[in-house]
Design goal:
178 residues; alpha/beta; Rossmann fold; 2 domains; 5-stranded mixed sheet; two-stranded parallel sheet; 4 helices; 24% helix; globular
Length: 178
C-alpha cells in the first residue's frame, strides 16, 4: 500500500486492486482508505468516470473529499481504458455499454438503498431530461442535486459543490454502517 496525504490533512492508504467483470474482463483500479488508528472498517464508495476517461482524471478531488468524511473509495478504469483489460483499446462499444447502463433501466430496484443523483442542468452528453425522468421513477429515500452548467462542469466549475453534496449524503447514509 502506498501512503498519501489529502489536502485536508487526512492520511490515506492506496492499494492497487483488480477484479473481474461479469464477462471475465479484468478491471483495475485503486482502493483508498483513511489511515486511521481505528480498527473499524470504513464504508466504501465506488467511483468511476463515464466512458472515455481514466481514473487519473480529476477523481482524486472526490476521493479527498470523501476520505475527509471517513469513507474509503474504490476508483477503477472501465474495460478497454486505462489499466483495465479489454480490446480494442480506448474504444467505446456503445451497444455493449449502453445495454448495461441505459439510464433508468434499474432505477425502481434501488430502494430501499438511498439514492443520490447529481445532475448538471444543461448536459447534452448524459441528457438532463433522461436523468430527471429516472429520478422521478426512483423510490425513496432519494435526493436530487441539480447544478448549473454542462457535462464536464461536474469536474470543473461545479466540482466542489458536487463533491460536498456527495460527501454529505454518504456521511448521512453510510456513517456507522460499515
Amino acid at each position: 500500500m502506498m501512503p498519501k496525504t489529502n489536502t485536508g490533512g487526512v492520511r490515506l492508504m492506496r492499494e492497487d486492486i483488480e477484479f473481474k467483470a461479469s464477462d471475465g474482463t479484468v478491471l483495475r483500479g485503486w482502493h483508498y482508505r483513511p489511515d486511521e488508528p481505528s480498527a473499524a472498517p470504513h464504508p466504501v464508495i465506488v467511483i468511476s468516470h463515464g466512458y472515455g476517461a481514466v481514473k487519473e482524471m480529476a477523481l482524486e478531488v472526490f476521493v479527498q473529499q470523501f476520505s475527509g468524511a471517513g469513507l474509503a473509495c474504490l476508483v477503477y478504469d472501465h474495460r478497454c481504458f486505462g489499466d483495465s483489460d479489454g480490446q480494442p483499446r480506448q474504444e467505446i462499444a456503445p451497444f455493449v455499454h449502453y445495454a448495461a447502463y441505459e439510464p433508468g433501466s434499474y432505477i425502481d430496484r434501488i430502494a430501499p438503498t438511498p439514492l443520490l443523483m447529481i445532475c448538471i442542468s444543461q448536459d447534452t452528453i448524459t441528457p438532463t431530461d433522461e436523468i430527471l425522468h429516472a429520478y422521478r421513477d426512483a423510490c425513496e429515500p432519494k435526493r436530487l442535486v441539480l447544478l448549473p452548467g454542462g457535462h464536464c462542469d461536474v469536474y470543473g466549475a461545479q466540482r466542489s459543490a458536487a463533491a460536498e453534496a456527495a460527501a454529505g449524503w454518504f456521511h448521512e447514509h453510510l456513517a456507522g454502517q460499515a
